[in-house]
Backbone:
């Protein structure tokens, strides 16, 4: 970004016959365009590099795409090696959906509390608290999950404590801020007349919330939930620490399972670059990347609907 | 108002310039550091004091030992011109990087031939193996399982899911929880080959953790848990089980009575440069082998009365 | 009557849930501080970690985290402000702008582990930076840039239109107006956003595992020559940050007091994040007051 800026300066000296403000404008334009161009280049190179690595196993014909997506046996060191990623897809999907299912009602209630019931208390206490939750690093969440939630589940439920449920609980706290802040935005932009009209008609607050506010803000609430799922889907370390990492499609919420991110974290360092095992891990990263695009697409659809 | 404006602007401009200056460096700065390590052998050829940089990467099991030794090495006045950096990244990463010439030493828990297979088999031939220590792996269990010896067959049954309760192998009436490692782990490969005699299954419901610290924590906390750990990680929170009646003691390992052990390798691409050789010789010196290596729970390579080759054939020295 | 009762129950439930969220947060922080603070001391904050003995500290890790933050922000701020200015002042309502908006959105939703892997592939391997602070800072820039762009864009949009028009009417160039009139006005909002973003950078670990590495070479804190491999300022040395250190001790810690160190380091990390949060709030408010009062 800097070199062209310098060129611009030297070029500026040559072009002194142009008035100062034109040169200034030119400089500004070049600067901001370069920044934006760099961003676009970055995203294309991310997609290009991850895809070129991740598509390798398919291009070389070592495994087929259906084998990866639908195979439920993950045995990379077996004879022959089997790379079925279904356990990880199932793990990632169930952890993030359950986390969203827990976080959604909490987030909605918090938003209602902040906008409808006690706005002052909400703004001074609850909102900063929730923003703080967003600031806590994911390793710390993993640490707490491992030392509090896992032992709790182990003592009170069958199983070893590790599993989808432990992961989902940790993730639900992590995505709560996302869900809440979007719900709060949606609720606070509702026209005040709508609510007052409902009260004037004799509806109670709960009736107003339930019959009026919930349906009108539903698309925005869903946007928040999808963003939350998207974040949960990509979270790596906190989940890896509490989920148990057995490469099997889980039969119960309390059984050790694995996600796309956890298997990448566990195995990336142990495999040698260029080997099939390593390349398949990049394919899993590519799946994560594609899922991001899917989530962004869904969010856009929902936003379009919310605007209508 | 005006003053603060000026201040703000200066700050922003300063930051911008600083960033420009910085990103300017990035393009070129990688080359001096590369040339530094290349120039190392040249300066030492004349027989003066060695100087240069060494970059080692790989196995997290070997990393603490190399780090510790490197610190001592750099403090030694003979080698004060040498700077050593040790990185983790896993055995696979270490081997890939040393093979590609990105690092000077690749640390690994297993033979390079076991990682570079099939089409990549030639890559292993370019690497030179330096075995610097031996690490023994013990089967460990939660202290309350009530078992202190397992035969090979019992272990195989447990890790294949045939035996599901400790009472079937003479212990308490408790469900067995397997704490395994991911399939790419070097420790797992060693355990499978030498203790089980073949690959183990990833059973549904088993827990997999890559790191020894986590395995120790889990086995210690989870009722009925079984796993395996390098000797250096053992403490009172877990119980080390005998294998076929043999303790995982240093003596049993050196005489070959306890078979589950592996070499710690430091691979170089081709013969090591004088600087790298100085470090490896330093680690292999009696002084280090008798003190740091032993203190950290590894077994000195010179104490071994048996040797093992890539294919697992054990011979008496 | 029934509706009234339902209303009361529902209101009660909502208040209870709001209370529960507060309780979770309070419990979380109390737990971390309670477990960790007893281990935090001046010695702990300044001394290097020990692999096998008791009494290791987190000094280099703390320094690395701060230094990495500075490096990241040195790259992110100018780029983010530039792109933010584009989004708010230069972008026309057309397809290209829509596309760039999409780019920002996608970039901000990438999982950090994917960005870490990209960093491994491109910065560490392709650009031959190896595991280094510079590679880590670049990866974090990718991760932080969209946030910075949004912060700048929103801050600039918050500047009253009249300010901009006045600048233009005085015959200032568009760029001069943006740079010397609007940006200073937007500064409090940008500052607050930047500090909040810094908190995020400070706690990030997944993207750094594969880029900045998990080790710190022996640092000589009397050597401030940035090109020396032992100097703490050298951007091309590997560096383990505090968050990565917590991850590492939890998994591979061999020191006898590893659990205490993990707890202590978590407490330190959480306190710093709290400080960032509070700092952003108070600073934002203070600057805002200063700007509005002096006008």
Residues:
């Amino acid at each position: 970004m800097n070199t062209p800026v310098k060129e611009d300066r030297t070029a500026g000296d040559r072009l002194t016959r142009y008035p100062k403000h034109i040169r200034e404008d030119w400089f500004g334009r070049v600067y901001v365009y370069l920044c934006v161009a760099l961003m676009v280049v970055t995203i294309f190179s991310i997609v290009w590099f991850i895809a070129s690595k991740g598509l390798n196993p398919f291009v070389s014909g070592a495994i087929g795409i259906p084998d990866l997506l639908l195979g439920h046996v993950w045995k990379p060191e077996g004879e022959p090696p089997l790379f079925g990623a279904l356990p990880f897809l199932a793990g990632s999907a169930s952890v993030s959906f359950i986390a969203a299912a827990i976080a959604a009602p909490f987030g909605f209630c918090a938003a209602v509390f902040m906008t409808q019931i006690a706005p002052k208390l909400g703004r001074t206490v609850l909102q900063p608290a929730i923003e703080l939750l967003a600031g806590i690093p994911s390793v710390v969440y993993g640490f707490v999950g491992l030392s509090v939630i896992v032992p709790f589940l182990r003592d009170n439920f069958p199983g070893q404590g590790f599993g989808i449920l432990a992961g989902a609980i940790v993730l639900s706290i992590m995505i709560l801020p996302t869900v809440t802040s979007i719900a709060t935005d949606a609720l606070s932009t509702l026209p005040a007349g709508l609510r007052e009209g409902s009260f004037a008609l004799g509806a109670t607050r709960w009736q107003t919330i339930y019959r009026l506010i919930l349906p009108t803000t539903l698309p925005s609430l869903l946007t928040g939930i999808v963003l939350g799922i998207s974040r949960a889907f990509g979270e790596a370390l906190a989940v890896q620490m509490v989920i148990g990492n057995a490469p099997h499609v889980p039969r119960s919420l309390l059984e050790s399972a694995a996600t796309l991110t956890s298997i990448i974290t566990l195995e990336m360092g142990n495999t040698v670059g260029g080997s099939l095992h390593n390349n398949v891990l990049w394919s899993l990263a590519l799946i994560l990347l594609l899922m991001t695009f899917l989530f962004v697409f869904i969010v856009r659809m929902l936003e379009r609907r919310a605007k209508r | 108002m005006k003053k603060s404006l000026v201040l703000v602007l200066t700050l922003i401009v300063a930051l911008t310039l600083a960033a420009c200056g910085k990103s300017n460096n990035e393009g070129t700065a990688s080359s001096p550091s590369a040339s530094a390590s290349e120039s190392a052998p040249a300066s030492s050829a004349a027989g003066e004091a060695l100087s240069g940089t060494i970059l080692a990467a790989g196995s997290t099991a070997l990393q603490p030992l190399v780090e510790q030794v490197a610190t001592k090495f750099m403090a030694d006045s003979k080698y004060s011109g040498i700077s050593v950096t040790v990185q983790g990244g896993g055995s696979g990463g270490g081997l890939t990087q040393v093979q590609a010439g990105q690092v000077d030493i690749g640390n690994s828990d297993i033979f390079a031939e076991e990682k570079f297979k099939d089409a990549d088999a030639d890559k292993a031939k370019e690497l030179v193996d330096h075995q610097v220590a031996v690490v023994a792996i013990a089967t460990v269990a939660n202290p309350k399982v009530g078992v202190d010896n397992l035969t090979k067959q019992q272990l195989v049954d447990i890790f294949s899911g045939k035996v599901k309760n400790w009472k079937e192998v003479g212990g308490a009436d408790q469900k067995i929880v397997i704490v395994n490692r991911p399939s790419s782990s070097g420790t797992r490969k060693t355990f499978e080959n030498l203790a089980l005699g073949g690959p183990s299954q990833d059973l549904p419901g088993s827990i997999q953790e890559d790191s020894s610290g986590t395995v120790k924590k889990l086995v210690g906390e989870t009722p009925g848990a079984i796993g395996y750990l390098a000797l250096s990680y053992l403490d009172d929170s877990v119980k080390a089980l005998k294998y076929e009646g043999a303790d995982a003691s240093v003596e049993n390992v050196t005489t070959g009575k306890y078979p589950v052990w592996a070499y710690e390798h430091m691979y170089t691409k081709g013969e090591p440069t004088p600087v790298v050789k100085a470090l490896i010789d330093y680690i292999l010196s009696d002084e280090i082998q008798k003190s740091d290596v032993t203190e950290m729970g590894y077994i000195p390579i010179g104490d071994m009365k048996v040797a093992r080759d890539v294919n697992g054939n054990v011979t008496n020295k | 009557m029934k509706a009234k009762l339902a209303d009361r129950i529902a209101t009660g439930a909502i208040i209870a849930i709001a209370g529960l969220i507060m309780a979770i947060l309070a419990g979380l922080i109390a737990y971390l501080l309670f477990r960790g603070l007893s281990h935090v001391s001046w010695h702990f904050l300044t001394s290097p970690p020990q692999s096998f003995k008791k009494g290791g500290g987190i000094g280099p890790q703390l320094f690395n985290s701060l230094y990495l933050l500075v490096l990241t922000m040195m790259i992110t701020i100018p780029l983010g402000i530039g792109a933010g200015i584009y989004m708010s002042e230069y972008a026309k309502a057309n397809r290209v702008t829509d596309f760039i908006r999409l780019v920002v959105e996608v970039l901000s939703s990438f999982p950090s582990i994917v960005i870490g892997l990209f960093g491994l592939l491109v910065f560490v391997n392709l650009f031959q930076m190896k595991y280094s602070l510079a590679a880590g800072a670049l990866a974090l820039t990718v991760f932080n840039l969209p946030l910075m762009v949004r912060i700048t864009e929103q801050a600039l949009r918050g500047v009253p239109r009249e300010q901009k028009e006045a600048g233009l009417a005085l015959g200032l160039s568009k760029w001069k107006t943006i740079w010397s009139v609007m940006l200073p006005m937007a500064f409090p909002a940008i500052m607050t956003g930047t500090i909040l973003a810094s908190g995020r950078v400070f706690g990030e670990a997944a993207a750094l595992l594969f880029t900045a590495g998990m080790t710190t070479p022996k640092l000589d804190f009397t050597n401030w020559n940035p090109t020396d491999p032992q100097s703490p300022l050298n951007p091309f040395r590997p560096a383990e940050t505090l968050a990565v250190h917590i991850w590492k001790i939890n998994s591979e810690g061999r020191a006898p007091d590893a659990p205490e160190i993990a707890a202590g380091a978590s407490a330190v990390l959480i306190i710093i994040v709290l400080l960032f949060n509070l700092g952003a709030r108070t600073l934002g408010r203070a600057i805002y007051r200063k700007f509005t009062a002096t006008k």
Observations:
- Chain C has a mean pLDDT of 84.
- Residues 40-292 of chain C form a domain with the MetI-like fold fold (CATH 1.10.3720.10).
- Chain C has one domain: 40-292.
